[in-house]
Amino acid sequence: MGLAQNSSLGWGGVRPCVVWALVGGSLGLLMSSPVQAQSGAMVQVNPVSQLRDVAPEDWAYQALLNLSARYNCLVGYPDGSFRGRRSLSRDEFAAGLNACLNQLERLLSATAGEFASAEDLETVRRLIEEFGGELAVMRGRIDGLTARIRELEVAQFSTTTQLRGDVTLAVSDVFGGDSITNILGAPASLDSAPVFQYRTRLDFNTSFYGPDNLRLRLQASNAAPLLSSGGDTGGEEPARLLFANDGRLAIDNSNVGQSDNSLFLEQLSYQFAVSDRLQAHVFAAGGSHFDYANTFNPYLDDADGGRGALSRFGQRNPLYGLGGEAAGLGLNWRLGERVQVDLGYLADRANAADTGLFNGNYAALAQVGVGAGDRWGFGLSYLHAYSRTNQFRFGGGGVATGSFQANLIPLALTSGAGSNDPRLSTPVSSNSYGMQGFFELNPNITVAAWAGWTQARLIGFGDAEIWNYALTLAFPDLGREGNLGAIIVGMEPTLRGIESGGVPFPVPDRDAVWHLEASYRYQFSDRVALTPGLVWLPALNQNAANDDVLLLTIQADFQF
Fold first, then answer.
1. Which residues, 6+ apart, have CB-to-CB distance to 165 below 8 Å?
2. The domain 161-559: what is its CATH number?
3. Tens digit of pLDDT for each residue in 162-200?
4. What is the C-alpha to C-alpha distance for residues 182 and 532, in angstroms, rounded to an integer?
5. Is 400 exposed, middle or buried (0-12, 13-18, 19+ CB in 10 A)?
6. Distances from the Cα of 382 to the Cαs of 323, 432, 435, 452, in angstroms?
7. Angle, to 10 degrees, between the axis of helix 90-111 and the axis of helix 118-130?
8. Hey, which residues does 280 pair with through a beta bridge?
């Protein structure tokens, strides 16, 4: 314990048995006090012979024997040791004194003072005077904590629900694009000004029995596409009049009817464990395949949050967005320590009587993934989807990724400004194949990559071939702990061609939709981050002849 046989702590004639009694009481109190011993909790010991590191020749042996015989106040560690040379702080000694006093009071009450001598009681009195301040402080702390706990219990939001929020503020601008072609193939010129946009989310996470989670997410935003020309297309499913769909930001994840500061239900889902190896995700609204399946881009995919990649495309393989913003079921089935199978089915009009779960748009996913935690991972995925006329999208309604042509929008597939071939206005049945993976080169550099190939059949007309791929570099803790640097180079979903009856259909533009992105997230604290970045689009609308476009943004993210 670090105590000499002749104590020099200024306590006068403190007998060894009393000192050791107090020390024993101190260690015993550690079992129930906020101060925890580094080597584990103590247990009650009766005979000294149970202590394997105390021998009869030790100078403290007699004191320990007295503790056991006279006061029943001897404690040790679960491994049978006493560790008498462990150093003792004044706070711990005060706690031990308090415990010893309680034991003495019990003995005096039971035996009318027969077990305590006048000398012992005088020593205890002097110790109370010496440590009165510490004892008072400890009692005050305990009383304060008790009052605080009662206050939190009364004022807490819910005993089962946690409220979490995320607010992203963004200042963005567009440069370049003086001479481009729009969705109709007509000449156009970008004429943008700096914008200030926001998106806020409120998540209500409820657990009913521990390993489950009911999520209700509310969202409000005014984040309109940066390359929009104003207004919308009207009709039952309006879309903004865009110059291009390329380079859409991650916070721009609401359709035209939702990006007007209105509060709406963004997701309602329930996650629970079916067994030790099977996890289920039920989506009543707002579900996407990336909400349950591993996308193998651990640092840059944060499910359209404000702390991953700046763009939609930079987060994950766009195949995970097929059939998104829908209702359905996702399953994670672990076959071993390193192998997992993900299965899912989503339908975006499951609530409508005329379509339901199986007669409208749907997308089914099957994926096999292997990996070792956050060090490396690799997955192969297959998706089958069906979409009604002009509703095939790499993402839900209004939140697509890639060029107009890759999303099979009929206006973008025809030659000549304003022309429209009615043969292209057909439902689409598609089969998509993806592979994606990541590898941690060292704790400060992680590389990830993916490739996606989609064969889409325009029913009654022909077959389209769509590709996308990317290579990403993430630099965690760049500059300081919590920061994140990122570089993304890839091709957004690009239509490579359409064949009808074995004959190539003359799609006007087929150039690769290159996407180059760089960002740096500076973490001011656990809850506040600032991320400046840029997105370079050298072939807007699958047309390398278009002027280059540069998107600049600075985003501040607040979590609570």
1. 200, 201, 202, 203, 559, 560
2. 2.40.160.10
3. 899 999 999 999 999 888 887 777 788 887 889 999 999
4. 28
5. buried
6. 13, 6, 9, 10
7. 140
8. 272, 331
Cα distance between residue 411 and residue 401, in whole Å: 17
> What single letter denotes the amino acid at residue 495?
L
- List, in sequence order, every residue forming a beta bridge with 457; answer none if it has no partner: 429, 463
Tokens of residue 186, six digits: 């007509």
H helices present in 156-274, as ranges = none
Q: Determine what percent of the chain falls in helix, strand and coil, rounding each to the nearest 5.
A: 20, 40, 45
Confidence of residue 429 (pLDDT cuts 50, 70, 90): very high
Sequence-distant (6+) residues with CB within 8 A of 21 are 63, 66, 67, 71, 73, 100, 103
Q: Of all helices (H) and strands (E), which one includes residue 107?
A: helix 90-111
Of 98, 78, 115, 129, nearest to 26 (Cα)?
98
- Residue 135 to residues 96, 153, 550, Cα–Cα distance (Å): 10, 27, 66
Nearest to 298 by CA among 443, 187, 182, 500: 443
The DSSP-derived string for 66-80 is HIIIII---EE-TTS
Give domain limits for the chain: 16-155, 161-559
Q: How far apart are the first and last CA of the chain?
A: 45
d(CA 459, CA 425): 9
Helix (H, G, I), strand (E, B) or coil at 467: strand
Residue 33 pLDDT exceeds 60: no
Q: Does the reported pTM lie above 0.85?
A: no
Neighbouring C-beta atoms of residue 401, cutoff 10 Å: 30
Q: What is the DSSP string of 261-274?
A: S--EEEEEEEEEES
The pLDDT tens digits of the residues spanning 265-323 come to 999 999 999 999 999 999 999 999 999 999 999 999 998 888 899 999 999 999 999 99
